[in-house]
Amino acid sequence: METNTSASAHEHRSQARKATASGWIGSALEYYDFFIYAQAAALIFPQLFFPSGNPKIAIVASLATYGVGYVARPIGAIVLGHWGDTHGRKNVLLLCMFLMGISTMAVGFLPTYHSVGMLAPTLLVILRLIQGFAVAGEISGASSMILEHAPFGRRGYYASFTLQGVQAGQILAAAVFLPLAYFMSESTFNSWGWRIPFLLSAFVLVAGYIIRREVHETPAFAKEEVSGNVPKSPIIEAFRYNWGDMLRVVGCALMNVIPVVATIFGAAYAVQASYGIGFSKSVYLWIPVIGNIVAVLVIPIVGNLSDRIGRRLPIIVGALGAGLLSFGYLYAISIKNVPLAIVMSILMWGIVYQGYNAIFPSFFPELFPTRSRVSAMAIGQNIGTTITALLPALFAYVAPPGSNNIPLTIGTITFGITVIAAVTAWSARENYRVKLSDLGQPNAVPIDKQSYEALRAETMAQAKKAVA
After folding, report:
1. What's the CATH code, domain 13-230+242-467?
2. What span, in angstroms and rounded, lies between the C-alpha atoms of 25 and 237?
3. Transmembrane ranges (predicted)?
4. Which of 115, 361, 402, 467 lies 20 to 30 angstroms, CA to CA, from 90?
């Protein structure tokens, strides 16, 4: 009996590690696809896919295609969330990955505006819509899978690796562009060099499939399936019983304004000649790379901290702090100070923003029951991120090339949005000491602090013993 129990515990720890690795690598690979588009939309697409007669219109239109991908995300959240709650977390993650990989590769084959006119941006928008649809189920599916495999008392730590993978994907996206922008002449890069990162998605797709097929379905979903409790319409259940927490997820997800400012509008502001700042593409690409490297190191530390003190406080501090630092980051770009821009990027995005970014993969799914967890989180999160993804075009409109006080204008909007996210987090329940089976119940009683700490210490001791 003891041997069976020990074997079961070992298998549980093994699956927790595999689920975490799958979530990390899968998110990294999918968001590599998603963010190479973001880099290209800021750095090169205005010249390739839109009329060159009016630089302002070209920049706004290119950044708008970035936002278009988010328009499809609520639709993807509904479809893929339903799939994840009715067919399993593993199945939906594989589906997301194939849709993302194929649509990203296709961007690398697109003709430009100079070749086919308006057909070029039309095809670009269609592929971006498919990308947005596909990525809508990634974070909610991966976070739910890891959370449901994770040991009690360590959900925040394990789930944080989902977002560590996302940040790694952003590093990879920028890192692929760096040598191309540095070693290629501008004419060569504009002609065909920009296509290489998109075509490399073929390798991304194969690697992601090999990794994700090894993970078992989560015990929580399997239990629902065996007992016949899988809902026919998890979305209806989510709106009927959890609409308040779904609105909280929408409000908190507005924190996506920080990476939007850092990587999308910040890139256009720094690089596009019409703004007059003059950062070179190769120099500016190092700013998000360095910020993300720091984030990769910080995320598991913050995730672990949330298992000790709760989820809400780090999110509130991260929201308000990052919003304030956006003023300094944009100011550093405006005065053409590359070292200061890098430092502010590290503080705003690499460190302080992780108070939210590292924790929402556990904070969001903990608000919902197993039956509708993927749907509820996916819909709420993707509505919030869709709102913020429309901001680059708005920013370029309210602070176009030639306007004054760009750091103050954009910084004020950014800080106002992060205040909304902080207040929303404050209004939510604290669930880090609630058992997995009780999550999503408004009247769920958390385990008392002393018992929780004892269970958490036991879990950590077993993990250390297994490693030894």
Report:
1. 1.20.1250.20
2. 31
3. 21-45, 57-80, 92-110, 116-136, 157-180, 192-211, 249-271, 283-303, 315-334, 340-364, 376-399, 405-426
4. 467
Determine the 3-state secondary structure of 385 from DSSP.
Answer: helix
CA–CA distance, 22 with 304 (Å, rounded to integer): 19
Q: What is the DSSP letter of 337?
A: -
DSSP result, 169-213 = HHHHHHHHHHHHHHHS-HHHHHHTGGGHHHHTHHHHHHHHHHHHT
Identify which of 119, 107, 130, 134 has the alpha carbon closest to the alpha carbon of residue 41. 107
- Tell me: the pLDDT tens digits for 158-168? 999 999 998 88
Q: What is the pLDDT of residues 78-134, one digit of tens each?
A: 999 999 999 888 888 888 888 888 888 998 999 888 888 888 888 888 888 888 888
Centre a 10 Å sphere on the Cβ of residue 10 and count the other Cβ atoms it contains.
12
Q: What is the pLDDT of residue 368?
A: 96
How much of the chain is in helix, strand and coil states, percent to nearest 5? 80, 0, 20
Higher pLDDT, 74 or 66: 74
Segment 222-277, tens digit of pLDDT: 888 888 778 888 999 999 999 999 999 999 999 999 988 887 788 788 887 788 78
DSSP assignment of 216-243 equals PPPHHHHHHHHTT---S-HHHHHHHHHH
